[in-house]
Amino acid sequence: MVRPLVPVLLFILLAGCASELLGQAEIPRWCKESPRAEFKGLERVRLRDARNDAWFEVYRVAARVFAVYEPRQSEETIGYLIVGGKKALLFDSGMGIGDVREVVTELTKLPVVVMNSHTHYDHVGGNWEFDTVYGMDTEFTRQSARGGTEVKGEIASGEICGALPEGFDAKGYRTRPWKIAELKHDGDKIDLGGRVLEIVATPGHTPDAICLWDAANGLLFTGDTYYKGTVWLYRPETDLDTYGRSVTRLAALAPHVKMVLGAHNVPVMPPTVLTELAAAFAKVRAGEVAGKDEPGGKVVYKVGETSFLRWGRPVF
Ligand SMILES: [Zn+2]
Hints:
Elements: H1 5-22, H2 29-32, E1 43-45, H3 50-55, E2 57-62, E3 65-69, E4 78-83, E5 88-91, H4 100-107, E6 112-115, H5 121-124, E7 133-136, H6 139-144, E8 182-184, E9 189-191, E10 196-201, E11 210-214, E12 219-223, E13 231-232, H7 240-253, E14 259-262, H8 272-285, E15 292-294, E16 298-303, E17 306-311
Parallel strand pairs: 5-6, 6-7, 7-8, 12-14, 13-17
Antiparallel strand pairs: 1-2, 2-3, 3-4, 4-5, 9-10, 10-11, 11-12, 15-16, 16-17
The structure holds zinc ion.
Zinc ion binds at residues 1, 120, 122-123, 224, 263-264.
């Protein structure tokens, strides 16, 4: 949930007219800009399955950590496969367009559990394919797990770069229900065998938003609480006071963090983004930042490299 919709719609309209006139397939502008420069230094892991390799891009971003990136859909969602000695954890299962379970099976033979950074549709699409999905003990999570969220707008032509995977059921595209195997809480530890991940509850973006903290390796997986790009804070389930407390908590963790790994656009960021995030959000909430109006009633609040998106005014 990272791209302003109206410019995209305008672009679809314009590109649609142009492509009709020229008889050419339309290529969204964001698609032409990929791959992003930040990926150049990362090691890509090619998938044996050509269909999966065409939809996903997998990068080795740290020891036994793979970023599973979906660059051909405008959300540019990133899930992470974190591998321990006895099992692996998939932190978000993506859009549900490509077959993420097949990807994971290629990357590890260990049993895989799924945990979501939060249960917005762009992070839970492949949950149904896994037997063991942990969930936060919130009503929001339980509601999301019932599935059925209508998400067809995400596969409109301006949102897709190239072709959808062969065999994908575009007509029936919506979130599928999944079973919550175990409820989790703030501070719970998940032992993968020689690698322990701690749940750091960071509600705000959604009530069930979490970060995963791999303390031994200094890796903080931040989901949508922070990613490189404008952070969307406008949905009914978003709570700004709670979000403020969560980003303050992350800033306190920053001195111990070596790498921040977000859920959209770019997988690897330095820990300084956490202190910048907390400072930027505090400034915006103090009314010190003039919002910039965008089409469709949206307002973007930008402080340095950090920005937040809200609808309408007054918003903070
Ligand atoms: Zn998201």
